[in-house]
Amino acid sequence: MKLERRSAPVSGEPVEQPEKQESKGKKPVIVYIMILFSAAFLMMAWSFASHQRSNTEALGRLQSSVGAIQEVQALQEQIIQLQKELSEAEKQVKELQNDAEYQQSVQETRDRELEAMNLLYSLQQRYSAQNYEACREIIDRLETDSLWSALNDNQGSPDAVTSPAERYRQLKEAAEARLAEAAEQDK
Questions:
Q1: What are the pLDDT digits (tens) for 39-65?
Q2: Which uninterrupted H or E stretch holds 143?
Q3: How many domains does the chain have?
Q4: Residue 39 lies in a domain
Q5: Which of 169, 132, 134, 135 has its CA nearest to residue 149?
């Protein structure tokens, strides 16, 4: 201030300050504004980077979720396919079991027919040999096991051949008649 007074004219006119002082007063405000803008820009950049990072993480989680869902869907499709194959296999197993049961039934029927035919042959042989007691045993076996029902009854056949069932009835009646005669003679 002392300097200002010395350089100021004595006339009493106000002394104008040089322009240098005016530019010095504006310069710190501009620097301050620049610092504020720089800080705001840095905060916006930091905010953008953090949002970008969180978006990337969320996108990664979504992609892993989508991948997991796709895997689950693929597994479900495989399960459905395997269930169809299992159902088809079960049908085949059931058909094979039915076929096996049918074959077993046919085989059992054939075995019964064969046994009945063998017994009929034995009955005929015993009757021809006049062994009526043995005939009675064979008839009892045929009746007890119901094997006589396995003998073919070709009624209505154009052939003149006597059916096994008819032959059994004839031999049974004849053998029972002979046994009855033998029982009367023993009395």
A1: 999 999 999 999 999 999 999 999 999
A2: helix 132-144
A3: 1
A4: no
A5: 169
* Assigned domain for 37 exists: no
Residue type, 128: S
Burial of 176 (0-12, 13-18, 19+ CB in 10 A): middle
Amino acid at 19: E
Quick one: pLDDT band at residue 1, thresholds 50, 70, 90?
very low
| C-alpha to C-alpha distance for 124 and 132, rounded to whole angstroms | 10
HSE-CB of 179 using CA atoms within 13 angstroms: 16
What is the C-alpha separation between 96 and 104, in angstroms, rounded? 12
With respect to residue 58, please indicate whether it lies within any of the assigned structural domains. no
How far lies 92's CA from each of 88, 103, 137, 153, in Å?
A: 6, 16, 47, 37
Q: Name the percent of the chain lying above pLDDT 90.
A: 42
**Nearest of 144, 143, 139, 161 to residue 152 by alpha carbon:** 161
Q: How far apart are CA 134 and CA 141, in angstroms?
A: 11
In the numeric block, which tokens belong to residue 109? 């029927």
Structural domain including 159 reads: 110-186
Percentage of the chain with pLDDT > 70?
Answer: 82
Let me know if residue 44 belongs to a domain: no
